[in-house]
From TrEMBL:
It holds the Pfam family TIM. The keyword Plastid does not apply. This is Triosephosphate isomerase. GO terms for biological process: gluconeogenesis; glyceraldehyde-3-phosphate biosynthetic process; glycerol catabolic process; glycolytic process. It comes from Longimonas halophila. CDD domains: TIM. The active site is at H96, E167. Its main location: cytoplasm. The keyword Cytoplasm applies. It is found in: Cytoplasm. Homodimer. GO terms for cellular component: cytosol.
């Protein structure tokens, strides 16, 4: 079980520090409860180092939200895997639908970034998911299959090397999450595709996270599905108490 927060383009430095402090304090208060699960936060790049400092006494991991596939060079505005590593990141989100839709990220770019992350010992959290018209047309699984195969072409699918996040685009930031049944159906499909691509043993160990309007009120039903191994949380990860409540729900699920 992995509970991850994607802060997106939110938090100035002081806000990020105070949010991270609240998460650290809250984590330490619930340490025994939360010990069985993994946690990750992905703040804006400029706040990574400060957030890492605030979380230093906790096992909460640090991740980037995006990165370039080259180590360095003339790529104005981009950050690289070595830069993320140097500020303490262990993970990086790759292929978020906002990067795909708003910044033109292609499946080929996602693949290059996945391989670059793995080459630098960063675990890519690969986001896949269909739009509403794609779902309505009955194409959700085809879209997810295409994204998944493209992202993982030539990459490692060992459980320690990759995380998949199923994030239906229509559920992101809308308050309209997938139903637990919809999530389970797609997560099982993702796992079967991973098994076909590589091996059933690898596929059974890969974390497949759900993202898209996961909140304290719906987390239990979503995290209770057998193929849902955690959440990638946007809006609710910006409130420490909500983020920690979802983590507690995840921990309870592990214990049950
Ligand atoms: O995009 C997401 C996480 O990457 C989900 O965002 P919301 O939880 O705000 O819907």
């Amino acid at each position: 079980m992995l509970i991850a927060g994607n802060w997106k383009m939110n938090t100035t430095l002081p806000n990020a520090q105070s949010l991270a402090q609240s998460i650290a304090t809250g984590y330490l208060e619930r340490q025994d409860t939360l010990a069985p699960i993994d946690m990750l936060v992905c703040p804006p790049d400029v706040n990574l180092q400060a957030v890492g400092g605030e979380l230093a006494e906790t096992p909460v991991a640090l991740g980037g939200q995006h990165m370039h596939h080259e180590d360095a060079g003339a790529f104005t505005g981009e950050v690289s895997a070595p830069m993320l590593k140097a500020v303490g990141c262990t993970h990086v989100i790759v292929g978020h639908s906002e990067r795909r839709q708003l910044f033109g990220l292609s499946d080929a770019d996602v693949n290059a970034q996945v391989k670059q992350a793995q080459a630098h010992d960063l675990i890519p959290v690969i986001c896949v998911g269909e739009t509403k018209p794609e779902r309505d047309a009955g194409n959700a699984k085809d879209v997810v299959r295409t994204q998944l195969h493209a992202a993982l072409n030539g990459a490692s699918v060992a459980a320690d090397d990759v995380i998949i996040a199923y994030e239906p685009v229509w559920a992101i930031g809308t308050g309209d999450s997938a139903t637990p049944e919809q999530a389970q159906e797609m997560h099982a499909f993702v796992r079967s595709e991973l098994a076909a691509l590589h091996s059933p043993e690898d596929a059974s160990g890969v974390h497949v996270l759900y993202g898209g309007s996961m909140k304290p009120h719906n987390a239990e039903a979503l995290l209770g599905q057998p193929d849902v191994n955690g959440g990638l949380i946007g809006g609710a990860s910006l409130t420490a108490s909500d983020f920690l409540t979802i983590a507690e729900i995840g921990a309870a699920e592990v214990a049950s």
